[in-house]
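Journal club prep — side note

Before the paper discussion, L.F. wants everyone to see what a predicted structure for a comparable chain looks like in token form. Sequence:
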Amino acid sequence: MASLSSLSEELGEIEGQISDIFRALSNGFQKLEKIKDSNRQSRQLEELTGKMRECKRLIKEFDREVKDLEYKSDADTTKMLSEKKQSMIKELNSYVALKKQYASNIENKRVDLFEGPGEGFAEENGFLASNMSNQQLMDQGNRMMDETDQVIERSKKVVHETVNVGTETAAALKAQTEQMSRIVNELDSIHFSIKKATQLVKELGRQVATDRCIMALLFLIVVGVVAIIIVKIVNPHNKDIRDIPGLAPPAPSRRLLAYPY
């Protein structure tokens, strides 16, 4: 570990954590061998499985750190780090194989509990039963019934949890389906609104264009009238320009000549 620490503090720390986990796994499997109850064995095995997951994660971190150091390490150091990683993986795989073996043994015990003992066990149990008193037989039977009831209760609990998970999943899928349906309806409504708005914009555009044309014509008419008025005022004797009704200049007043009598 000192050599790894000299290369990288993180490598040394990771190796130390992995070594601690390997020691815990070794002690845990030794303890597992002494446990007779299958339930306690299962709990112990789950705890050891968690440690193995953590060890796998640390080995991945170790591999990443090794790859980061490859560009500045010589060939011997790179080889040493690679061998160290392979050694860790090999040791972890040995514990994984041991875990699978214990899990298989625990599962076989549970199957035997449900299916009943085999022929060889039946003969042995018959021999033991012949040497046991009635009270011992009753105690043994009650103990086996209690263990069977515990297994059944655990199975019922698993089934109940499975049903609950299935119900929750179905409810979640139903809610998601309804939400998707609402989203589709909202999209249809938005599309229809956009279509109507486009039509309204087009109609408004046509109306605005029409209004502009009318305003232009009115403007031209007003300009023309104003021009005629101006010309008439400036040159009232111009006969080429007709008088505008209502705007013609007033006719000159006639004067009567007085003749003497």
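L.F.'s comment for the group: The longest helix spans residues 134-234. Keep this in mind when we get to the figures.
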